[in-house]
């Protein structure tokens, strides 16, 4: 906690400056993580519409829900990168920054004169993170990619969906969001390395690589068996009971992950004798008798309401959860206790709810994240306070359409 006139602690990356050439989702998710950790993020946006997601409906009072979701805590500066003066401004800004993040297709930043080689010549300490669908190398490097394409190419889509139906994409755009995980990991490790070497580094983040990396034990299962894992819907390929079970007024998730939980499931459904039943007393036997085991659990759950089942499974310490909608999840007592939804002051919308940062630090309170910026909200402040430009020079750049 801070006292008196002491400035609030913004996070462990306080003092780190990031020049952000990202747009849409994968890149902005990465720079969002850095902003949440306290970095000062200068989001470079083109004149006119800015980041494409500013136009994605639904839109309220000129502001898109999509843009608001992944740009909290950043500062927007509008610069025309098609002009030499605009390129000069962002080069000067990069010289004063610790990190550069971009998610254009490979080669675009080079053509702009803002590629890795050019930037490290200007700032040898710069950490330069490139995020793209397929990475900077390989036969697919120049292809456009979107989340569902990456899910398909990674193998993730093939195993998502019901056994007898078509594959179904993940509801969360994990193919894109993996860039918001791996990008910051690479950046933070490079910042740590720079403390020893004094040199920056280029980071090549492929969203396809990232999603393949998240296959985890599913990939190892394919290596073991030499075949593609089958789709099992919300169930687990090897663990039973594990999945969604019917309730009298809805459905509930039950997850029996280890042998010890099987006994708890049996006790909770009033079938304690099943614990020692030789038909179901190992993980392999329960997997092979999947339909029978699921039927035993379903016969119990369908006679009770969701709230009753939550109470029963809680009492027996069975891993379980009601299936909440997004609004219920965000208003759940656990989310409230963790302060996961907070209010921020937006420049045009006024007070708005936003999702809070998901990484917390004990013993020190961080301020509520700043609302996402309106287009060009911080242009003048960045030009004057960071680049030390005079009011006359800023007025000239505005008149020429270089900044807005």
UniProtKB/TrEMBL annotation:
Domain of life: Bacteria
UniProt entry keywords in alphabetical sequence: Transferase
UniProt keyword annotation of Transferase present: yes
InterPro entries from the UniProt entry: CoA-transferase_III_domain (IPR050483), CoA-Trfase_fam_III (IPR003673), CoA-Trfase_III_dom3_sf (IPR044855), CoA-Trfase_III_dom_1_sf (IPR023606)
Transferase recorded as keyword: yes
Stored Pfam families: CoA_transf_3 (PF02515)
Signal peptide segment: none
GO-annotated molecular function: transferase activity
Entry-linked PANTHER family: SUCCINATE--HYDROXYMETHYLGLUTARATE COA-TRANSFERASE
Name used for this protein in its record: Formyl-CoA transferase/CoA:oxalate CoA-transferase
Organism (species): Novosphingobium panipatense
């Amino acid at each position: 906690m801070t006292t008196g006139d002491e400035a609030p602690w913004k996070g462990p990356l306080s003092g780190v400056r990031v020049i952000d050439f990202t747009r849409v989702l994968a890149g902005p998710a990465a720079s969002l993580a850095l902003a949440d950790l306290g970095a000062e993020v200068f989001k470079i946006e083109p004149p006119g519409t800015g980041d494409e997601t500013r136009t994605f409906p639904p839109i309220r009072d000129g502001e898109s829900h999509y843009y608001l979701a992944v740009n909290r805590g950043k500062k927007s500066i509008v610069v025309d990168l098609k002009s030499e003066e605009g390129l000069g401004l962002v080069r000067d800004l990069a010289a004063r920054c610790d990190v550069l993040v971009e998610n254009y297709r490979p080669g675009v930043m080079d053509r702009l004169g803002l590629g890795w080689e050019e930037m490290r010549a200007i700032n040898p300490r710069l950490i330069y993170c490139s995020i793209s669908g397929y990475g900077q190398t390989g036969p697919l490097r120049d292809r456009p990619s979107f989340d569902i394409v990456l899910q398909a190419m990674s193998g993730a889509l093939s195993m998502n969906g019901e056994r007898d139906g078509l594959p179904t994409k993940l509801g969360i755009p994990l193919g894109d969001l993996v860039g918001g995980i791996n990008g910051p990991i690479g950046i933070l490790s490079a910042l740590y390395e720079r403390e020893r070497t004094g040199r920056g580094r280029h980071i090549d983040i492929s969203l396809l690589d990232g999603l393949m990396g998240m296959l985890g034990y599913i990939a190892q299962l394919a290596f073991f068996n030499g075949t593609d894992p089958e789709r099992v819907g919300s169930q687990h390929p090897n663990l039973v009971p594990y999945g969604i079970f019917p309730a009298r007024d809805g459905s509930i998730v039950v997850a029996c992950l280890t042998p010890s939980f099987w006994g708890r499931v049996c006790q909770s459904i009033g079938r304690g004798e099943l614990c020692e039943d030789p038909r179901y007393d190992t993980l392999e036997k329960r997997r092979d008798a999947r339909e029978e085991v699921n039927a035993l659990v379903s016969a119990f759950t369908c006679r009770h309401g969701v709230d009753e089942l939550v109470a029963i499974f809680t009492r027996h310490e069975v891993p379980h959860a009601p299936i909440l909608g997004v609004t219920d999840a965000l208003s759940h007592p656990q989310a409230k206790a963790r302060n996961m939804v907070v209010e921020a002051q937006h420049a045009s919308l006024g007070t708005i709810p936003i999702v809070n940062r998901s990484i917390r630090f004990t013993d020190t309170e961080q301020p509520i994240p700043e609302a996402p910026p309106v287009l060009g909200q911080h242009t003048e402040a960045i030009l004057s306070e960071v680049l030390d430009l005079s009011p006359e020079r800023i007025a000239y750049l505005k008149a020429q359409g270089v900044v807005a």
